[in-house]
Amino acid sequence: MQKLINQIYKLTFTFSFILCLCILTQAQSKESSNIQLILKTKTNTLNTKKPSREYIYKNEKSWLKKYNPISLGFGSLLYLYQNVLSQQFSADCLYHPTCSDFSKDAIREYGLVKGIFLSSDRICRCNRIAATSINYFKFDQKSHHAHDSVSYYRIKPIINLESK
């Protein structure tokens, strides 16, 4: 009886070993076909063109605004951030337009003081924790970015309805 049980164990072990061997050879053949597929794929099709961004006051007509030392300082810092530092980060902005483009537009439209406040608010909201509270209707399903334009922050005048 003991010999029969030992033979059953040996047969079971041999059968499971052969089964595992068959499975591993199938996995190896699939892996080699995957490697061949990877080698056939063109890897140079990625978009490596860097976006070029202009200086904030490049087309400004006002001499005072264009050559003001404060405007030159903040504009230069923004230009350096967009063209040097931002390209080194692997993070992707949650919003469209990006936070630095939003800052540029806010400073152009509302001036330096309000533009800096709007920019700092936007930068504080550009993180994965704050992404949970983004309005669903502002979210684009194709680009996976939320639309947040500078025009959303314009104060709308209240219409006075006077009784006649």
Automatic annotation (TrEMBL):
Pfam families in the cross-refs: YidD
Coiled-coil spans in chain: none
Record-linked InterPro entries: Membr_insert_effic_factor_YidD
The protein's name in its UniProt record: Membrane protein insertion efficiency factor YidD
